[in-house]
Amino acid sequence: MRAGAQALPEGVENTACCSAKEVVIPTIDLRAPLSADPREVAAARHQMASHLHSQGIDGEVADSAVLLVSELVTNAILHGEPPVELRVAVPGGRVHVEVHDSDRESHPHVGPVNGPAGERLGGRGLSLVASLSSRWGLWADDSGKCVWFEIDLR
């Protein structure tokens, strides 16, 4: 664990963004600072879609990445602390996405995808991240937390 890193919930990885042993940290192609305004979620989706299109990535991979960005940015705005920042890289063979916020105390949890209708209004976003990404996780240190995912290009 990095100096100053916080304990993470069971089942959540603490790898990319911080451990060069396990994941090569890519050079970030897109940095998008976001305010705490919920309208920023739409802006983040648009920036993500435009960036992926400029990299020649469309179709299912782009659709999944845009959906997951929407989930992570929503979580950061609703449950994190500003500033929030979206970071994207497209290193060889994968899409790497990070969403940073300055709240180092709270950690997202994976909720059930199925269940009785109306049982929960939220809590399914990270289940989508786990289902649609190739890898995901989070890390936290004194500056806040980063929730990340990667999707392998097929």
UniProtKB/TrEMBL annotation:
GO terms for molecular function: protein serine/threonine kinase activity. Keywords: Kinase, Serine/threonine-protein kinase, Transferase. It comes from Motilibacter peucedani. Residues 34-149 form the Histidine kinase/HSP90-like ATPase domain. The keyword Transferase applies. This is Anti-sigma regulatory factor (Ser/Thr protein kinase). It comes from the Bacteria. CDD domains: HATPase_RsbW-like. Pfam families: HATPase_c_2 (PF13581). InterPro entries: Anti-sigma-factor_SerPK (IPR050267), HATPase_C_sf (IPR036890), HATPase_dom (IPR003594).
